[in-house]
Amino acid sequence: MCWDAAEDGIVSAPGTAGIERIEARFHGNAFDLHRHDTYAIGVTLHGVQSFRYRGAAHHSLPGQIIVLHPDELHDGGAGTDEGLHYRILYLEPSLLLDCLGGAPLPFVEDAVVSDPALRGTLLSALAPLDEELDELFVADFIAQLAQNLGRHAGQPAKPMEKTAWRAAALARDYLEENVERAVRSDELEAVTGLDRYALSRHFRATYSTSPHRFLLMRRLQRARRMIEAGEALAEIAIAAGFSDQSHFHRHFKKAFGLTPGRWSALVRGPSVAAAA
């Protein structure tokens, strides 16, 4: 993508189920402390990518990779005056779980990794941001990514019980099918056969987040796509299932580290960035 290196901005790639891809340029602080229920895995292209994560400060240099686990609090921005340029993808944990066949999600303790093989795997998905990712590519990409993350995760944890994994997956599917409305705990109990407390424990063990937060994040992701399509913020709040604009504003900032208005001002499509 080509745009003025002195200008802050975000390029959002065409959507792929379970994967969001962006390219970004920033000067100074970009995102306040926030957390989302996806992996954030990216490559620093230029400048220093500085962020706080799990109680410590980290700095990623050009060519290095950042790996942030789902639902972990973090911020981010440029570590020097020359600014920051990076590409990153947000990966829903369910894609990795399907690939791992019941093994727990890999947790990479080092937030900044130097690994040419992992970098090559990431850039295979992040380089053509103006192109959609086809189904066969995504399957191979996830398999390679799982293998690479596994190498950095160390000793794998004990596999999850199949009953717990299946119940969490049933709850997840039901929540995705009903993202536009409030879902009650007794509905999930009926779908999964577990009481709400056991389900909450199994869901968090499986996806590293709660059922409530999973539903909230799907609404926020939908809202972000609507922003990228140029829809009015006041209309987006209601369409995405929020009670009013202030409710939407508050949750958006907690999840993404900036306000809906700021995201709207920064985001641009791949074709616009290429022409700039």
From TrEMBL:
<dbReference type="InterPro" id="IPR009057">
    <property type="entry name" value="Homeodomain-like_sf"/>
</dbReference>
<protein>
    <submittedName>
        <fullName>Transcriptional regulator</fullName>
    </submittedName>
</protein>
<dbReference type="InterPro" id="IPR050204">
    <property type="entry name" value="AraC_XylS_family_regulators"/>
</dbReference>
<dbReference type="Pfam" id="PF12833">
    <property type="entry name" value="HTH_18"/>
</dbReference>
<keyword id="KW-0238">DNA-binding</keyword>
<feature type="domain" description="HTH araC/xylS-type">
    <location>
        <begin position="169"/>
        <end position="266"/>
    </location>
</feature>
<keyword id="KW-0010">Activator</keyword>
<keyword id="KW-0805">Transcription regulation</keyword>
<dbReference type="GO" id="GO:0043565">
    <property type="term" value="F:sequence-specific DNA binding"/>
</dbReference>
<dbReference type="InterPro" id="IPR018062">
    <property type="entry name" value="HTH_AraC-typ_CS"/>
</dbReference>
<dbReference type="GO" id="GO:0003700">
    <property type="term" value="F:DNA-binding transcription factor activity"/>
</dbReference>
<dbReference type="Pfam" id="PF02311">
    <property type="entry name" value="AraC_binding"/>
</dbReference>
<keyword id="KW-0804">Transcription</keyword>
<dbReference type="InterPro" id="IPR020449">
    <property type="entry name" value="Tscrpt_reg_AraC-type_HTH"/>
</dbReference>
<dbReference type="InterPro" id="IPR037923">
    <property type="entry name" value="HTH-like"/>
</dbReference>
<dbReference type="InterPro" id="IPR018060">
    <property type="entry name" value="HTH_AraC"/>
</dbReference>
<dbReference type="InterPro" id="IPR003313">
    <property type="entry name" value="AraC-bd"/>
</dbReference>
